[in-house]
Amino acid sequence: MNTALPTKRHYVDPTPFDPGATEPVGAENESFYRASSWRLMWWKFRRHKVAVAAAFILLVFYLIVPFVEVIAPYNQTKRNGDFIYAPPQSLHLTHEGRFVGPFVYSYSQSFDLENFRRVYTVDRTSPQPIRFFCRGDAYKFWGLVNANVHLVCPPENGTMFLLGTDRLGRDLLSRIIYGARISLTIGVVGIAVSFALGLFFGGLAGYLGGWVDHVIQRMIEILRSLPELPLWLALSAALPANWSPILVFFGITIILGLLDWPGLARAVRSKLLALREEDFVKAAELMGASKQRIIARHLIPNFMSHLIASATLSIPSMILGETALSFLGLGLRPPVTSWGVLLNEAQNLAAVQLHPWLLFPIVPVIVVVLAFNFMGDGLRDAADPYH
Amino acid sequence: METPLLSVRQLTVDFKADSGDFRAVDGLTFDIPKGKTVALVGESGSGKSVTAQAILQILSKKARISGGSIVFNDPATGKTADIAELRPESDAMHALRGGRIAMIFQEPMTSLSPLHTIGDQISEALIIHAHVGQAEADKRTMEVLARVGFPDPKRALRTYPFELSGGLRQRAMIAMALITRPALLIADEPTTALDVTTQAQILDLIKELQAETGMSVLLITHDLGVVANVADEVVVMYRGRVMEAGSREEIFRNAQHPYLKALIRAVPRFAMGEDERLTPIRDVKSAILANTDAPKRPQPQGPILKAEGLRKCFTLRSGWFSGKTRTIRAVNDVNLTLPAGKTLGLVGESGCGKTTVSKMIMRAMAPDSGRVLFDDGSGPRDVFGLEGSALTDYRRTVQFIFQDPFSSLNPRMTVYELLTEPLRIHDIGTPDERYERAKQLLDMVGLDKRSLRRYPHSFSGGQRQRLGIARALALEPRVLLCDEPVSALDVSVQAQILNLLKDLQDVLGLSYLFVSHNLAVVDYIADTIAVMCRGYIVEEAPKTSLFRNPMHPYTQALLAAVPDPDIDRPLDFDKLRAGRFSNPADWPEPYRLVEGEAGVMKEVEPGHKVRMGAHKAREAA
Amino acid sequence: MIRFLLRRLVTMVVTLLIISALVFFIIKLPPGDFLSNQIAELRAQGESASIAKAEFLIKQYGLDRPAWEQYLVWIGVMPGPNGYSGLLQGDWGWSFEFDKPVVEVVGDALWLTLLVNLAVVIFIHVVSIPIAIYSATRQYSVGDYIATFIGYIGLATPSFLLALILLYYMNRWFGVSIGGLYDAQYAGEPWTWDKIKSLLSHLIVPTLVIGLSGTAAMIRRMRANLLDELGKQYYVTAKAKGLGPNKALLKYPFRMSLNPFIADIGNLLPHLISGSVLVSLVLSLPTVGPILLSALKSQDQFLAGFILMFVAVLTVIGMLISDLLLAMLDPRIRMGGGR
Amino acid sequence: QTYVEPPLFAEKVAKKELPPLAERLPQPPIVVNPKGGQYGGDIVTLVSRPRDIRYISTYAYTRLIGYDRSLQLQPDLLERFENEDDRVFTFTLRAGHCWSDGTPFTSEDFRYYWEDVAQDPDLSPAGPPEFMMVDGKLPRFEVIDERTVRYTWDKPNPRFLPQLAGPLDPGIYRASAYLKRFHAKYADKAALEEKAKKAKLKSWAALHNRLDDMKEQTNPDLPTLMPWRITNTAPATRFVFERNPYYHRVDNRGQQLPYVDRMIMDVSASGLFAAKANAGEIDMLFRGLSMSDVPILKEGEKAKGYHTLLWPYARGTELALYPNLNATDPVWRKLNRDLRFRKALSLGIDRRTLNNALLFGLGTEGNNTVVAESPLFSPELRTLNATYDPDEASRLLDEIGLTQRNGAGIRLLPDGRELEIIVETDGESSLVVDGLTLIGEFWREIGVRLFVKPQDRTVLRNRSFAGLTVMVAAQGFDNAIPTALMPPTEFAPMRQDNYSWPKWGQYVETKGKNGEAVDMPEAKRLLELYDTWMNTGNRTVQADVWREMLRNHAENQWVIGTVAGALQPIVMRNGLMGLPEKALYSWEPTAMIGIYRADEIYWNKAAGKEARR
Ligand SMILES: Nc1ncnc2c1ncn2[C@@H]1O[C@H](COP(=O)(O)OP(=O)(O)OP(=O)(O)O)[C@@H](O)[C@H]1O
Ligand SMILES: Nc1ncnc2c1ncn2[C@@H]1O[C@H](COP(=O)(O)OP(=O)(O)OP(=O)(O)O)[C@@H](O)[C@H]1O
Ligand SMILES: [Mg+2]
Ligand SMILES: [Mg+2]
Ligand code: NI
């Protein structure tokens, strides 16, 4: 090899030289090389442990969505008048040193007139084993099939309020599970709407510029100048009362989406205004690419990081946006539950001070939001060619 | 023996990549003596830029110095530091970077921030290292801008990179490196975007500074002519390893290694025989060419492309609220004809409007006046009037190779996607066919299929340039507008590409508009050559007659400035300094153009036209 | 430039006109008007005596005229009961609820709103920019994760719930009185040092509550944008010049990644104002938010209209500023504008 | 009798800026006999918006004639009054009674109101208030002397005195001395118009109306007769009321009432009321608190030094359903008018569960009717048609013909729609919304679906007026402790704002111009009964009318009641005395705490020492 050589001397590499020699090409199959950047993204993403874990958590959450009726121990409307504001019952495994399997102790309510509070006393004498794959509250699965099978049920003649109950004696855990259905879909649908619009209008304005930009800009300006408040109020009056809860839900989602897009559109536009001056855009243009293609394939991907970040950030605002609406009387209608509704109900001092378990719905919201965020991070990294 | 300024020992740089780790620099050893110029030459992708980055510790995150040392002996402080041991973000490293070791980057377009003015970016280095005030920094910036040949340094302070031609950007980059008067200048292809006269000026400047400050230079270049003219020592690299190293004399007179010999053989020379081919180290397997038969396409009666009276002015806004604007006449009354199956070479000073002309022909930019006619066999049509499918056809048949390959490649697309994108746009072939085509294209430009799944940023400058060429060829165009297509390629790969282009022309009847600073290359490939200066075509002639009998003073100056890869025929820098003839008002009669006058093209020989002042031409008539 | 500004100003006026029409339309959307509702309310309380007075007012404010006439009178292109006196003449209208000119009603609230929002904006930027830079340059460090986590808790908790919890603990632990912008005893008092102290201590919760979600959002977006720019060649150039990583980062990639945020400036204010309505309501802040809400609910049309127009003007100005800043920031936009 | 000068005025009196107390008091003043009251201190309370400061006139309950704790009418500002068959009313003022600015309170103030305000077409385009008219005729008004005025109607006007004693003072007298300065009849009209212009008002009348504001408390200059007078104006976040030096009540130890110098109202979001009370930031609070706040209020009692009085709320029912008999939808109108339907809905409600869930089981279950404390109460009317009997309910619905059901077991309307009742509510009370959720479950069992639709109050009202609502949920009768002399207005279809019969009410109110004539005999009967009540001064006849109306309501279920008897929490800081431990709370007739006399509330120095900040 080239040992320390004084540069003054004329050095010639002694190893034989073969210009045709190519480095051995790896044994990867063709698809390895043919991978599109999307596929590469996916491969990179898979290597990102935190992101994959987050994606897995989300998957679990979303898998719950179609089966909430089965998974929730109670129906969402099921209330128990004898257990109003009951604190969480803890799950035990051993009774007096003996393994029993998962069980709860029953408790009973009494009324403390002095403090105006319901007091629950736990009866530690007899464990009440909870049941699995059992029959419980009847429900209509997907609104089609009547059924009453549950994954877990309360003990026979007993109660199982693992997260306590609310002011009407409804099981919080079940309500959270039912709420997941609405909250998890509302975020995704809302974002889909707002992204579709934001990308479309922002893309048009940014890439085409000129009068299109001008009109879209003014549109955004007008939309943005109207604070959401009066719109919500007007809408709350306008939404027909006999819309089914599902319709209301979609109405709200769409409204949230509709209100959300201008911000994104402006960001897209300003970034595109800068990007469209880049040579590679010109190159695509000169190759004859259509405008849509240039926006979709060349401009937007270069804006991916911001989009992913925006999307993951919009999720919580969508999930919670609906709480603000219910605050103004435009939210979901009972009996439909969402995490936002649950949090809204916890929105008083009594919840903070006397019934802290009512604040529990924050936990799934945070978990979901964090999971979306970490997944977004992974996506961003995967999409970053430099990473 | 004096300690060298920088001694690199057994330097090894590894890259981590999806397709496996690979070694870009492998046991590299060389010294840079004080005050001397060391030229680093080698095949495109052989690790020259990576070496330079390693010296500055600015390697990409994927790369790592996995062995060896880089010892820097600072002549000013007498201190010695092993750069390979320093942390990239340590203070010691910051002090070295820019201050003691400065670098000119290979791709000047992407290396400048688009948001900051040239002046800001250049003076910054000075402010950091010399601790001077803004006013002083501006003054010195103007000085160096003037020295690198900016026509109006004061205004240049406030222009943005995208307002400059490729050559001007490169000169800005050079100014940025030189302003702190470093002990070591690493110049990575500093003159690729410059015409030969400017190149000579820059080389001269570097020499001057070397004499003034005892600066050492690590010059990375492909142009053996430049090496022969300025280098003291030469290091020849191939695939990350030194093949041969020695003094200039030894290398040029006594080349030993087969690679170096092949390299010297591959240099295009003037006055090559009509059918003489360049001899690259590896030739493209002509099998690929053989099975692509020429499609039956109607041939146009006249030229396939014709530009008539193109003019373009750029308006420069000087301030925010002041309405004061300045216009730059980038292109002035340009007429060009490109016959089918022929090559038109376009040479000229950096910043004279070549790129602007090609962009207008591409309809990437609207001319202020004039028109471009395109004839695909169905009669000439104005390009700017094309609509719908006619435009799509035009886009398909006429392709453009960008001067700056990096910025013309979408950073978020893999090579596979980049190469197949044109096919997808025009909806050609099945995915499998497209894949085969992509592999074929890569083969043509001498890259292997592992490149397919890499992103543009992970290639060397020359490799990217080849990607640009491959992409332009993807659609089997009939006309190719090449804006400096081979400037970043070493002579061997360059030969390979030039041969390829020639073969394609023979087989498929392609027409080229070939913009280049390298006159030998133009001579090799072109049939007709047009010389541009300050927005004007000053001379146009078949290549034989142009090189035999250059009429215009600017053409003559240009030819005189071509560096020869022969150490026995050095450039005469003094003479070059005297007569650059780039200002129309300085041209001797009858060529002088007075302010605002366009003059006329006058035919002096059959096919040989020269621009003359209008009244002189009338007189002559 | 001047022409550009002039053109923008003209379009601004047109936009504002359209907005004013929309605003009025939306306010008028629910049936009835303030005084009719008032009368109904009075009647419900058996207060027949005041009804006559309310009816007197209906005539006086022209509420018996068709809506479009009311609109034209409001903006001042049609003579009202007082002749030409509308927004264009600088007459901001009359609040029925407070029975006072709108400006007097809104006066204090307006600058308190701006104060709160300013505090929020400053808070967001001061907190999020350094954190964003930190977590972009030290991606996947523990610090990055912690910043992310805290940010997201802020984002994932409904602001009013957070407000309530914070209020409760601020009161329990630091004795800060619940709600309001200063202790009640300072209401209507002149500004003294104690009052300012009280104001500052009361600003903490709203700033935190309104700002937290914005902060998280800003950190994440900024971080994402920065990460994109960190790989670019010009950043390498800057580093090659010997700039320290932070300085180089601030000057080059940071400035590059500011683009989407500047584009958002126009949004900032209306967003903060409407975003802070609920919080202001919960926290009982004397800002325009709650006034707006109650004005909308009670259809105190001129008051609501004024506040909405005020926000609209701010938005439109914000957008203009954002466009100017964008052009200032990015010469490519400045010079390439309009193909 | 010697009088003790309030310390707040001592200085002013010493400086002769204010005459001594003896000269300020009317002769005779009202002498009351509370235990241990003493001068001094402020009371801090909360309002949710600046406008609500007008409720001071309810708390401070200063009337010409007012109810005492046994709901008997007593002269208050008046020295005495005479009532001949509810037709001729003669009022006698107290000698030397002064407004808060020291100007005398005389017959002229009544005349000024009657002639120059109520009948001035500029100031009152709609004329005098409706309760002053009988069959569209105005009373004859006479000023007998300085201190005596008389109103004479041809027919009895039994509403007159109860109206004067209502929770909101109709104010048939004005501070004439002050207001004349702004009346075109007494002052220079041009100058007044000028003044009005300056205040951005349109005419002198507007200016007068604005300054003449006995209830809204927006004019600190306006003299008052109340125990406290306002000192500042909106916009503000704190409103301060200061004691009236000329107030007409004293205690038996010669101390002038009110004991407390200042009544301070801070503006705060209503959502924070309980929190602020819990944090011990206020001295007294009741309006804006509800039974669901009780646990949290109890929680803070010990730590923050206050206690919570729990007064039963005298309301017809906490949650009432108003089926709209005037609905425009013909199907619903028919159904709502079917007594069997209303009965079925009532029998389908499990009131015990509601009571447990909403009122801690402490409420009374049954109809929307008067409370047991009322002399008109009869126990069987509470439960008539208001037991829980889902089987009977189902039977009744079947009997109507609503036998078709859909897959989910919901009955179908004759036109094929589902029997979905959209119950609209103003959404301001969580109790109502929660209660509806529960009722929704009960009704599902009888095949009826219920949707809750919270609306903004004004929207709701407008929808109801237009006949668009099918059913509205709200609170029941305001006055649940009526005596025979109180008008049974709420019980007869004569008010548009009753969600059961908005159009009938409108018809009566507009004298047949708008709305629909009452066309159900049972409802017509209510109107007849009301007429009977109106046309007599005889209390036994009136009591009979009352009883029949109550029975009519229970039988017809015009309004479906559920549970009553919520407890109204009243937070009092330790040391603040003067309110009974237990009493009935209501809007009408108790005027919240009005009839228990806020002016008699005082700080017990001993207990209050450590409690005050
Ligand atoms: N960021 C990167 N990631 C992966 N591979 C890289 C990266 N940068 C460079 N390479 C590879 O390292 C090798 C050496 O690159 P380098 O830029 O040093 O070439 P060069 O000698 O400067 O060539 P040229 O003359 O074409 O500029 C090339 O094969 C290139 O593809
Ligand atoms: N967008 C622009 N705005 C302003 N001036 C421009 C712009 N583009 C080019 N110019 C100016 O027009 C002139 C011609 O530029 P052009 O890029 O055509 O030169 P070129 O001949 O290609 O030079 P080079 O060989 O250096 O690339 C230069 O002076 C350049 O500064
Ligand atoms: Mg290189
Ligand atoms: Mg060029
Ligand atoms: Ni990663």
UniProtKB/TrEMBL annotation, chain A:
Membrane topology label: Multi-pass membrane protein
Keywords: Membrane, Transmembrane, Transmembrane helix, Transport
Keyword Signal assigned: no
Domain of life: Bacteria
Primary localization: membrane
ABC transmembrane type-1 domain span: 180-376
SUPFAM superfamilies found in the cross-reference section: MetI-like
Transmembrane segments: 50-72, 182-209, 229-259, 307-330, 350-372
This protein's record includes keyword Magnesium: no
GO CC annotation terms, alphabetical: plasma membrane
GO terms, biological process: transmembrane transport
InterPro entries the UniProt entry points to: MetI-like (IPR000515), MetI-like_sf (IPR035906), OppC_N (IPR025966)
Annotated compartments: Cell membrane
The family this protein is said to belong to: Belongs to the binding-protein-dependent transport system permease family.
Name recorded for this polypeptide: Peptide/nickel transport system permease protein
Automatic annotation (TrEMBL), chain B:
Biological processes annotated in GO: peptide transport; transmembrane transport
Start and end residues of each ABC transporter domain: 8-264, 305-559
One Gene Ontology CC term in the entry: plasma membrane
Swiss-Prot/TrEMBL keywords: ATP-binding, Nucleotide-binding, Transport
InterPro entries, A to Z: AAA+_ATPase, ABC_transp_ATP-bind, ABC_transporter-like_ATP-bd, ABC_transporter-like_CS, Oligopep_ABC_C, P-loop_NTPase
Cellular location(s): Cell inner membrane
Entry-linked Pfam families: ABC_tran, oligo_HPY
Domain of life according to the entry: Bacteria
CDD domains: ABC_NikE_OppD_transporters
Keyword ATP-binding: yes
Membrane disposition: Peripheral membrane protein
Any one GO MF annotation of this record: ATP hydrolysis activity
Family the UniProt entry places it in: Belongs to the ABC transporter superfamily.
UniProt xrefs under PANTHER family: D,D-DIPEPTIDE TRANSPORT ATP-BINDING PROTEIN DDPF-RELATED (PTHR43776:SF7), TRANSPORT ATP-BINDING PROTEIN (PTHR43776)
Protein name: Peptide/nickel transport system ATP-binding protein
UniProt source species: Microvirga subterranea
Automatic annotation (TrEMBL), chain C:
Transmembrane segments: 9-27, 109-133, 145-170, 199-219, 261-283, 303-329
Source species, domain of life: Bacteria
Keywords in alphabetical order: Cell membrane, Membrane, Transmembrane, Transmembrane helix, Transport
Record keyword Transmembrane present: yes
Membrane topology annotation: Multi-pass membrane protein
Record-level GO cellular component terms: plasma membrane
InterPro entries in the cross-refs: BPD_transp_1_N, MetI-like, MetI-like_sf
Membrane among keywords: yes
Residue ranges occupied by any ABC transmembrane type-1 domain in the UniProt entry: 110-326
PROSITE patterns reported for this sequence: ABC_TM1
GO biological process, one term: transmembrane transport
Subcellular location: Cell membrane
The family this protein is said to belong to: Belongs to the binding-protein-dependent transport system permease family.
Protein's UniProt name: Peptide/nickel transport system permease protein
Organism of this sequence: Microvirga subterranea
